Amino acid sequence: MSEQAHRGTIFVEDARLLAREALAGEQFVLRLDAPRCARAATPGSFIHITCDLSIPMRRPLSIMRADPVAGWIEVLYKIVGPGLRQLSAQPVGASLSVIGPIGHGFTAHPDRPRTLMVGGGVGIPPMVFLAESLKTQGDDGWKPLVLMGSEIPFPFRLRPSTMIVPGIPAGVIACMPLLEEWQVPSRLASFADFAGCYQGYVTDLAALWLAGLDPAALAQVEIFACGPTPMLAATARLARRFGIPCQVSLEEFMACAVGGCAGCAVEVKTPGGSAMKRVCVDGPVFDAEIVF
User: Fold this and answer.
1) Fewer CB atoms near the end CB (10 Å): N or C, the chain?
2) Are 115 and 244 in contact, with CB atoms under 8 Å apart?
3) Which residues contact 86 (CB under 8 A, 6 or more apart)?
4) Where are the beta strands (DSSP E) in 6-102?
5) Single pTM value for the model
6) Each residue of 2-48: pLDDT tens digit?
7) What CA–CA distance (Å, rounded) separates 80 from 274?
8) Which residues partner with 188 through β-bridges?
């Protein structure tokens, strides 16, 4: 897709930092006043943010929540390198240059209302955004399930779920409180022995749930995933095994994030053979079949 297709949908804003929450594992949630970005954001889109005036390169961060009425967005990130460390030190009230929302997000199809969302680590934010967007559509028949995996403390306080999820092993009861408040069931997986979590890969937990569905229920499932590349590859294999469509959001290093440098290009399969696509503007969401 050409850059022209994105004109009028990507904005540059001086976003004011409204709130900053420090979490375990050097993770942070920032709430930014960015009304134009908030109005146009979709689940799976991201921003390119200036961390500090002393650091010329921006950083791409997935949007976790967006309120188009109040005009704010939220991002979740883990400190990796000096740029994000500088970002975490910005005081509330600081002005931060933001480009966004960037990229094509997830598309949930009503004919497959059992939306299985799989998020790993910093891939959790788009799943929260997608779950909230489905919730705000009201009683449209959506039956979402969010599965999250992390080997560091989750970016929220774990609590036992009060929602029953058939097919999930007994004792796997830890959930994300925010999703629970939205009446969206969630379950967690980790090798770190967190209480109430599935001991293993989040994709293995997804496989257990899928294996418990009958053919009619499986025909209603669509998978959405974001996280490390090995997790996305495992999710793609899982979708292929059960014959389920799957969309994945890729994570790549980005310089410009608006399609100019092509530094984030990945190889994909097309009817005409292999091709290179830019994760920033052609993605970050792709059909899993053409990537893996």
Assistant:
1) N
2) no
3) 51, 52, 54, 55
4) 11-23, 27-33, 46-49, 59-67, 72-78, 95-102
5) 0.93
6) 444 444 578 999 999 999 999 999 999 999 999 999 999 999 999 99
7) 32
8) 148
